Sequence to fold (160 residues):
Amino acid sequence: MADVLPIPVVSDVAHIIQLALAPVFLLTGVGAFLNVCTGRLARIIDRSRVITPEIESLKGPKHDRLVEELRVLDRRMGVVDTAILLSVVSACLVCLVVVLLFASEVIGRSFGSTIALLFIGSMLCQAGAFATFIVEIRLASRTIRITKDLLFHQADDNKT
Fold:
């Protein structure tokens, strides 16, 4: 006769759902962070699409400035992509935590160490995603510098 899985008691399932709520809320936060990252990635891509045709039609210092900006945009794109990857891995690990919480109850085995390691891995990935995001923000803020001549620009009185 095949082994029959025990039917969990409703109160046990309710307890597992309570335990799983914290990781599910974590998934909500990771999802919001992914939304921010994808928004930044979209803006980077949009800017690169705007300046690429300009580069081909320009010469001199303005051309060189746009080429340098495109290089920074390319680097930012890679950094944001890394942050997105780390966040997605983090979310997948959290999903595995939730699955193992329920599986341990259904099959009657303890996956405590595995669950703890997956959760630690998830937090490390998310911390890496946040750190990578800071790098991208620093790259962006270093690229966009307002020159002093624009900061102290005076309107020409002769023009109306």
The radius of gyration is 25 Å. The helical segments are 10-57, 61-107, 112-143, 148-151. The mean pLDDT is 86. Residues 114 and 150 are 57 Å apart (CA to CA).
